[in-house]
Structure formats: C-alpha cells, structure tokens
Amino acid sequence: MEYSILPMLxxxxxAVREIYGQGIATGNATFETDLSDWEKWDSIxxxxxxxxxxETSNHHxxxxxxxxxxxxxxxxxxxxxxxxxxxxxxxxxxxxxxxLMQALIRESxxxxxxxxxxxxxxxNTSSITLHKSCGFREVGVRQxxxxxxxxxxxxxxxxxxxxxxx
Length: 166
Description:
Layout: E1 3-7, H1 13-26, H2 38-44, E2 50-55, E3 58-70, E4 80-87, H3 96-110, E5 115-120, H4 125-133, E6 137-148, E7 151-161
Parallel strand pairs: 4-5
Antiparallel strand pairs: 1-2, 2-3, 3-4, 5-7, 6-7
C-alpha cells in the first residue's frame, strides 16, 4: 500500500471522523464515547501539527491521522502537547502509525514543541509499542483516572522530550 502524509484539511474530516469512530469502538483508544463535529474537534486541537495519511492514488481515502492538543493555556506549557494518533482498521500493522508519528514529531519540533505526552490505556499494547519505538518513555500510571461504561480505567502516561527543541 502506497500512502502519503499530508497536512490535514477540513475536507479530510469525514474520513478522520470515521477512523476516530473506529478507535472509540475498540474501547481501548479513548475515554470519548461520541464523535464530535468538525467545529468542536478543530477548536481543541492545534491548528498546526495535524496530519493525515492518505492513499497516494486517492487523497480522499484517509488511512490514519495524527494531531496535537495543547496541555494547558499557560505560557509555561506552550511547548508541551498531547499526541493523538489513529489508524483505520484496514491500514493497521502496515507502518502507517509509525510514519504518522515520525512526521508529527518533525512537525512538532518545527513548531517549537519540546515535550510530547500521551495517555494510553495499558491494554492498548500496539499504541504503547508505537510510542516507545518513536522515543517515548513511561512516566507512570494514573490509576483509576476515569470511568468508561462504569469501570474505572488506568492510563499509562508516556512522554517524549525533543533533542532539537530546548
């Protein structure tokens, strides 16, 4: 499968939303249970550092996406962002997640981000493996940080410190 990593545009939203829905359906990708609309999604994510993996032959067929969310509006945390990486079910295991993460790291460093963080359910071993393969390290476990369908869930906290941005 040949694909390209491109900046995410509003016209990618229907495919991005579908892939996000697939992640929600697994029960191990996010605490979210409902799909938001473009306006809400757009308002909470950084305007830069938004990427989509698309089939080279059809740029409307998204295979996965990655984006950053600021962790705080406080100036001191301006270089810290939370990572979201989602790969569509038909493209999993084909290197799309790695390509997106590597491109997102480059984009984040160009934007002056010095720390990337991720909160991942311990059961999501493929996401943990992806993050660690891209230089993230375990910081700790946030025990019973939230509930999902009435069950308390732990979240593994990982971070990656840039060697480029200081």
